[in-house]
Amino acid sequence: MQTKTNIKTKLKKFFFLFFFLIVLVFQNNSQITRAITMNSYQDGIVIEELRLKVPYEFRDVWIKAEEKIWEPWLSVKDGYMGREIFWDKEKEEALILVKWKNKKLWKSISLEEVNQIQEKFEDSIKKSLNLSENPFNLIYEGELEKQDDF
After folding, report:
1. H/E element holding 47?
2. Interatomic CA distance for residues 74 and 79, integer angstroms
3. From CA 101, how far away is CA 127, in angstroms rounded?
4. pLDDT class of 8 with cuts at 50, 70, 90
5. Does the pLDDT of residue 37 top 90, yes or no?
6. How do residues 94-111 score in pLDDT, each as one tens digit?
7. Could you give the CA distance from residue 62 to residue 48 in angstroms, rounded to a whole number?
8. Which of 48, 63, 57 lies closest to 89, judged by CA?
């Protein structure tokens, strides 16, 4: 009698583990199935996201420097598709979204070249505002990938 009870207990444990493994193996995670595969992320449109602190009193000087220095430089870069600039009055923050044909083209721009343009931008700002430091601090930088499913 005890042998039958042991067998039943072991069978119950086996079926429980078997069911658990089936659920684990065949689970459906919709976020994973919608995600861009690692092979294609270099080929799809990517948006560079930059957030800066831009005080109200310096906003006009900042936007003019953006147009004078960054826009001409960006416009000749391979893969550049345009950008949008937003400014939040309450937070005194700017959001810059730069659209690139793909991540590979965007990341092919050397850091030295970007730093040279940033230095030119900061020098122009400091000269225009008669300051010793750049008043526009970078808050955040990141990237967004275009999703075709939505």
Report:
1. strand 46-53
2. 9
3. 34
4. confident
5. no
6. 999 999 999 999 999 999
7. 19
8. 57
